[in-house]
Amino acid sequence: MKFQPQASHFIDGAYVEDSEGKLIDVIYPATGEVIAQLHSATPAIVDMALKSAEAAKAEWAALSGTERGRILRRAADIMRARNYDLSVLETHDTGKPIQETTVADATSGADALEYFGGLAGSLTGEHIPLAGGDFVYTIREALGVCVGIGAWNYPTQIACWKGAPALACGNTMVFKPSETTPLSALKVAEILIEAGAPKGIYNVVQGYGDVGAALVTDSRVAKVSLTGSVPTGKKVYAAAAAGMKHVTMELGGKSPMIVFDDADIENAVSGAILGNFYSSGQVCSNGTRVFVQKNIKEAFLSRLSERLANAKIGDPMDEDVSFGPMVSENQLNIALGYVAKGKAEGARLVCGGDRIDGDGFYMQPTVFADVTDEMIIAREEIFGPVMSVLDFDTEEEVMARANATEFGLAAGVFTADLTRAHRIVAGFEAGTCYINTYNLAPVEAPFGGSKMSGVGRENSKLAINHFSEMKTVYVSMNDVEAPY
Ligand code: NAD
To answer: What are phi and psi of 480, to 5 degrees?
Structure first.
């Protein structure tokens, strides 16, 4: 098998196998072929990974931030130098077109390693002067062993978005990729070692939900960062709470994108395409509820249909292909199930809607119009290439409807009226908002959700606060006054 790694897990600086673990078939979504076989971690493997992370943490935290940062920046350089090979692996793991993986996966992971590597040397506490010459200083300390649990849509990116800030702060990590896309996190672990990281600071264990659950409940773990669905988030958050652990939850969404009649239609259509069909629609922050002002609805839909006809669907390894298969047969069936629900509820199918014949897990980019707020396709996260277009009359009305969801991951507005744009984003109940664009997530900007879409933020300087805590030191310059 062409993509078979040396072994399933990467612990204490080396590949480790335990074939007692449940089998994980890694399937290339474009063909349905098994490209690697791994084993889910047994309790012995989970213990070995946590022991290694625990043993490595004191020495790693004792390095200066600059020294830690140097290793992360070296890892970023190695990732960039190997971008093509890593992208080929990511394409086989996820089915995403090589056109995407070469610009959005290892490169995004490298950005995180470089950014947090750069920040590492400047992480400090503060000095707080008090009356009478007394003062307080704070020491920024690592949390300890952190657990990262990933989803399958951006495996390399998620492994680095969690690993880089954790390591920059002096923590160690045990990362469990999604069982659907287990391959690339192993490469991240390998590259860190090659960059000079001490063994044990970044371990990868494979497995299904039960392995994630075993990691979350272990008393050696101080922090859990999950990227996944809301139902999983609820379970993981509750389990972490029992041990009073820190959490970051990057969960699902059903984000609104509002298009006013003064918007540049071409840009709005581009935003809707990126925000619904990039990665075959398997992006958490997608703007899947596209609210279009009534008087431009038909113009918007006809331009959208014309543009979608130019999507090049096919072999994701072909550099001209812009739309690949879905990650798995299961995910394909979920999306097709929602298409059936949309039709049954009376939404108008504008284009797509069908599976594409063949062994791969392909479906057509799909657009529903005349969708109403109550329809299931407008309420539930589909996580596939299915766009719902809803129409509206007034700003006030669309604002209320855009926020009428339990989710709050992202939201966007397209308009030429910038005063209105800022008013709209001020009203959005969402963690990440866009004006006249959609779905960009540079490492410099905080990323994360409100409401049921999550807790905490990834990326930017804010991520540092989620991977460190402050120790307060009160220093008296005076005699101690006691009442008796
Ligand atoms: P999922 O919730 O099924 O699984 C996520 C991860 O959690 C997997 O690694 C899984 O093995 C693990 N897991 C499952 N049960 C667990 C348990 N009880 N304890 C610990 N770990 C457990 O999600 P998925 O299908 O892999 O990914 C799709 C979801 O992820 C979508 O809802 C999507 O919106 C969300 N997502 C969010 C972001 C974000 O940044 N907000 C990014 C990508 C994906």
So the answer is: -85, 125
Residue range 80-94: mean pLDDT, rounded: 98
For 382-420, write each residue's pLDDT tens digit. 999 999 999 999 999 999 999 999 999 999 999 999 999
Beta bridge partners of 291: 258, 390
Task: Report how far residue 153's alpha carbon sits from residue 58's, in angstroms, rounded to the nearest whole number.
Answer: 33
% of the chain beyond a pLDDT of 90: 100
Does the beta carbon of 149 sit less than 6 angstroms from any atom of ligand 1?
A: yes
Structure tokens at 421: 């744009």
Residues 6+ apart with CB under 8 A from 436: 263, 264, 267, 271, 413, 414, 415, 421
Q: CA-to-CA distance for 296 and 274, rounded, in angstroms?
A: 20
CB burial class (10 A; 0-12, 13-18, 19+) of residue 471? exposed
Best mutation site among 162, 232, 251, 255 for ligand 1 pocket (most ligand atoms within 8 Å of CB): 232
- The reply to whether ligand 1 has any atom less than 6 angstroms from the CB of 161 is no
Cα 225 from Cα 232, distance rounded (Å): 12
Which of 229, 286, 386, 460 is the pocket-test mutation for ligand 1 (most atoms within 8 Å of CB)? 229
pLDDT band of 77, cuts 50, 70, 90: very high
List the one residue out of 216, 215, 191 whose CA is nearest residue 202. Answer: 191
CA of 229 to the centre of ligand 1 (A): 5
